[in-house]
Design brief:
The structure is a homodimer of 516-residue chains. In chain A, 46% of the residues lie in helices and 12% in strands. Chain A is an alpha/beta fold and 516 residues long. In chain A, helix 17 crosses helix 18. The interface between A and B is large, with 203 and 201 residues.
C-alpha cells in the first residue's frame, strides 16, 4: 500500500458518528420517563387489552424501511401515540390471565441502565456485571434453600432454563458421549427416557424435541385429583422401562404447574430418582419464589434435593421480562456440558480476566446482557420480607376468590386454589339445579353449553377491558383461570372480577341459551 | 367454605402493594437518565477497563440477602458509586476488541420503555408488540435482500439464532421424524452430517452438541489463504460422506467470520447445497448488515439463496444487547419445528388474538420481551442511509489502519482487512531484519518471542486503559485483532491506537527481550 492509497482511504473517511448531544440525550430520557410515569399511573384505570386486530395494528404502524434521519423527539411521539395505547396492560391489578407478572418500575429503569451500560456478560472485562450476576444467583439459591455451591446462570426465562438444565441432564446421564457422538435414540430398547407429569409445561417436550430426545421418549405420568404427579405411576413406568432395557434418565417435577399451580410431591420424587439413579429436575419457574413466604416454603420441601432447578425472576420476583434462572447442583456439570474452546475468546488470560467464571461456558448464549441489574435492584428495594408478604398475599387473594365463589350459587371452582391459581367457571344457578336433576344425556348437553358459555365470557371479557382472565381445559371442561402474580391486586379487585364475570356471564347466557 | 372462613382469609389480606408514588418514579427515572448522560458523555475519556479482579469486585458489592426495604435513591447511589465505575466501556471509540458494538442511547432508553411496558410478545393481546416485531423483521429482510415471505424471529443473539435455524434444518432434512423419535446418530453409516468452515463461530459446534448431532458429525472444511471456505474441499467431503452412506444435511457458511471477517463464497456454496440437496445456512451475525452499504452489499451476493440466516442487530445495527434475529425462507418450517399445542396458551381463539402469529411457535422461548422496540427506534432515528455510511466508514477505518501499518517497519498485518477486522502484530524493526537473515531455528525462536511479546502487549493494554484490542491465534501466531463495530471511532482514534500499541510494545520489548 503506498502513501497515496493511504491518503485516498483517509479522504474517504469523514468521521461521521451517531453521537447525540448530551443535553439532547437528557431531554429524550426525561421525555421517556414522563411517558412511563403516565403509563404506570394509569395502570389501574386503563383498558387491559387493545381493541384492534393484529392486522389493524400492523397497518397503523406500517412504513417503508426508513431512509433518512429523524429526531428522537418525533419517534418518541410516534411511540406514545401509536404504540403505547395498544399495549396489553400486563401489571393491571385485574389482569389475572396466564402467569404474567407485574414488573417493578425500578426494575424497568434498571433495564434501561443495563442497556446503556451495554455490558456483554461473557467477555472478560465485564467483571462487575459478572459479580452482580453471581451475587444475585447466590441470593436466589439462599431464598429456595439450595446448595450454596451450585452453579447458576440467568437466562431469558423458563423455556431456556429448562432446556439448559435438560441439556446438562442428558449429557451427564448418557452412557455415551452425547456431545461428541450425538444422540442415539435409534436403539429402541436402549433409548433415553424422560418422565414428566401430564401437567408439565409445554417447554419441556419442546426441549425434548430440540435435544433430540424425541417426544416419543417422554413418559407422561398420571396425576392425582390435585393434579400432582402420581408417584406410584412414576415408579411403575420407570421399572417397566428399565425391565425393557430402556434407559430412564430424568424426571421433571413441577413446583407450581402452569395450569393449576400444583406442586408435585418433591420428596417422594427425589427418593425415586435416587433409588433408580435418575436426574431430578424441578421446574419451579412459577412456584419457586413461594419460598420467600415462610408459610409457603414447606410446600417446596424436597426442592433442595434437585439436581437442577428452573426458576423465573420475571414471575414471582416481579422483574420485567426477560429474567429466568437455571441452577445445577454439581457446579462442574454446566461447564462440562457447554464450555467450548475458541481462540478469539480465550486467548486473553490476563490477571484481570474472569477465567474462573465465563458465563458463556454455563449455557447456550455467548453474548449476554446485564439482566442481573434489575434483579439486584428490585431485591434490594423491597427486601425479602416484603416480597414474602406480597407473595403470601397473592396466595391469600386466590383463597379469598375461592371463598367468594363458594358462597355463590352461580359459579363453581374446578380445582382447590393452589399457590395463586384457581380454575372456575360460571354455572348459572338454574342450570346447576337442572344439572343435578338431569339424565346423563341432558347432563352432557348442559356441560357442552357451559363450555360454549364460558368461552363466550372470555371473548366478551377481552372486548370489555375491565378484567382479563385466561382459560384452560380440564378434562373436557372449558374453565376460567385466574392467576395472581401481581403486586397491585387487592381484595376489591377480586370482588370486582367476580362481579364482572357474573355480569358478562349473565349477558352471554341471555344471548346464547336455548331450551335444553 | 363458610362465611367465617371467608372473613378469616379476608382479614389476612392487608392490601399491601409495591406501588411507588408517580412523582417518586419520575424522580428516580430522571436520576437514572442523568447518570446515563454522564456515562455517555464520558465515554471518550474514560478508562476502557476496570482495574479490579472479579474477586475484588465481588467483595466490593457483597451483601447478605436483603431483608428490608430501602429507598430507590439509595440503591441508585450504590449503583452509581460501586457498579458503574467498574464497567467495561463497550462503545468507547478505542475499544476494538471482539465484535462488541457501541449501542445507541435511544436504543438503550427504548429497552427501559420496553421493560416498563413489560409486554410478553407471545401472548395473544400483545398484538402491537407483535406488529412492531413483524415490521422490524420485514425491514431486516429488505436490507439484506431476502425473500419478503420468509419467517423470522428476534432472539437474544447469534448463538440462539444459529441454534434455532439449525434445529429447523435438522428437523426438516432428517429422513425420519426427529421431533417424535429423537436423533439417531447411532447408525454410523447413516448419521446426519453438518459442514462448517474451520473458521466457524464456536456457537455452531455448541448447537450441534445441544441438538444431539454430535461434534463428531461435523466436518470442518478447509479454508483458502483468505480464510474462506474452500468449496472444492467442501464438495469432496460431501461426496465422500454420501458415498459412505452418510447423510450430509446442512452447510453453515459465514458472512463475516468472527476471527477475520472473512465472507465465504456464498454463491458457490449455494450451488453445492442445491446440487446435493443440503440445507444452506448463513451465519451473518456480524457481517449481514454490511448490506446497508451499497458498496459492500455485493460481498454478500448469494445470501438471498440461504434456507436460513442468523443476523445480529446488536452488532452492526448498534443496538444494545440483546438483539439477534433468525430468518427462515420457507415460512412454515419454523412452526413445523417448534409449535406445540397447549391448552392454557391456545384456548383463547377470540377475534383479537394473534392466532396467525404466535412467536412462541417460531422458536425456543415462550415468554419473550419487546426487543423489537429498540430496533424500530434506532432504524427510524438514523435511517438506512446514515447506517450505510457508518458501516462503510467502519470498514474504511480498518483499511486505513492496514494502510498505516503497511507504512511502518515495526508492525505487520497477518490478514488483509476484511469487513471491519484486521489481524496484525507488533514486530520490532530490528527483529524483522534479523528474522529475514536467520536460520530456521532462529526464526522459530523469534516467532516464539513475538508470541510472548504480543501477548504481553494485550496484558499491558488492559491495565493501561486507553485502548483495547482482542487477540486470536492464526496458525501458531498470537496476533492482535482490531474490529470496528463502533459509531464513535474516528481516524484520530486509529492513529492513536497504533501509537499506543507501539508505545506499549516497545516497553514490553525492553522488558522481555533477551539475546537470541
Amino acid at each position: 500500500m503506498t502513501e497515496k492509497d493511504d491518503h485516498t482511504i483517509a479522504d474517504l473517511i469523514h468521521d461521521e458518528t451517531f453521537d447525540m448531544d448530551p443535553e439532547e440525550i437528557r431531554k429524550i430520557g426525561y421525555q421517556m420517563v414522563d411517558l412511563l410515569v403516565e403509563y404506570f399511573k394509569d395502570m389501574r384505570t386503563s383498558a387491559i387489552l387493545p381493541n384492534k386486530t393484529l392486522q389493524e395494528m400492523s397497518k397503523l404502524i406500517y412504513e417503508p424501511l426508513p431512509q433518512n434521519e429523524q429526531t428522537a423527539d418525533k419517534i418518541l411521539d410516534e411511540c406514545k401515540k401509536k404504540i403505547m395505547p395498544e399495549m396489553i396492560r400486563i401489571g393491571h391489578p385485574r389482569l389475572l390471565g396466564w402467569i404474567l407478572s407485574s414488573g417493578t418500575p425500578v426494575g424497568a429503569f434498571a433495564d434501561g441502565v443495563a442497556s446503556a451500560l451495554n455490558q456483554n456478560v461473557s467477555v472478560s472485562g465485564a467483571g462487575m456485571a459478572t459479580a452482580v450476576e453471581l451475587l444475585v444467583i447466590d441470593w436466589i439459591k439462599e431464598i429456595i434453600g439450595y446448595d450454596p455451591c451450585a452453579a447458576g446462570l440467568l437466562v431469558s426465562g423458563g423455556s431456556l432454563a429448562n432446556l439448559t438444565a435438560l441439556t446438562v441432564a442428558r449429557n451427564m446421564k448418557a452412557n455415551f458421549n452425547v456431545r461428541h457422538c450425538g444422540m442415539k435414540q435409534d436403539r429402541l430398547d436402549k433409548n433415553m427416557v424422560l418422565y414428566v407429569s401430564k401437567e408439565v409445561h409445554v417447554c419441556v417436550p419442546k426441549a425434548a424435541n430440540i435435544l433430540g430426545i424425541g417426544t416419543d421418549n417422554i413418559r407422561y405420568v398420571n396425576v392425582d385429583h390435585n393434579l400432582r404427579v402420581d408417584t406410584e405411576d412414576l415408579r411403575k413406568k420407570i421399572v417397566e422401562d428399565q425391565k425393557n432395557g430402556l434407559h430412564p434418565f430424568c424426571v421433571v417435577a413441577s413446583a407450581g404447574t402452569v395450569n393449576t399451580g400444583a406442586i408435585d410431591p418433591l420428596e417422594s420424587i427425589a427418593d425415586i430418582c435416587k433409588q433408580y439413579d435418575l436426574w431430578f429436575h424441578v421446574d419451579a419457574a412459577y412456584g419457586g419464589f413461594a419460598a420467600l413466604s415462610s408459610r409457603l416454603k414447606p410446600l417446596l420441601n424436597g426442592i433442595e434435593r434437585a439436581d437442577s432447578i428452573a426458576i423465573d425472576p420475571h414471575k414471582w420476583l416481579f422483574i420485567p421480562y426477560e429474567a429466568g434462572c437455571v441452577l445445577v447442583k454439581n457446579s462442574s456439570y454446566m461447564k462440562q456440558t457447554f464450555a467450548m474452546g475458541a481462540e478469539y475468546i480465550h486467548a486473553n488470560t490476563s490477571p484481570i480476566s474472569n477465567e474462573d467464571v465465563d458465563f458463556s461456558d454455563y449455557g447456550i448464549q455467548l453474548s449476554r446482557n446485564f439482566r442481573a441489574l434489575k434483579i439486584w435492584m428490585s431485591l434490594k428495594q423491597y427486601g425479602v420480607l416484603k416480597y414474602g408478604r406480597l407473595i403470601d398475599q397473592n396466595v391469600h387473594l386466590i383463597q379469598y376468590f375461592a371463598a367468594l365463589i363458594n358462597e355463590t350459587t352461580d359459579f363453581e371452582t374446578l380445582t382447590d386454589p393452589c399457590l395463586s391459581i384457581i380454575c372456575f367457571r360460571f354455572f348459572p344457578t338454574d342450570l346447576q339445579k337442572m344439572y343435578n336433576d338431569s339424565s346423563s344425556i341432558q347432563k352432557e348437553m348442559i356441560s357442552e353449553y357451559l363450555n360454549v358459555l364460558n368461552r363466550d365470557i372470555i371473548e366478551c371479557m377481552r372486548r370489555d377491558g375491565r378484567i382479563l382472565l385466561s382459560s384452560t381445559i380440564l378434562g373436557k371442561r372449558f374453565v376460567l383461570r385466574a392467576c395472581v402474580v401481581n403486586y397491585r391486586t387487592t381484595k376489591k379487585d377480586i370482588v370486582m372480577i367476580l362481579e364482572i364475570v357474573r355480569e358478562l356471564g349473565s349477558k352471554s347466557d341471555k344471548k346464547l341459551r336455548k331450551p335444553f
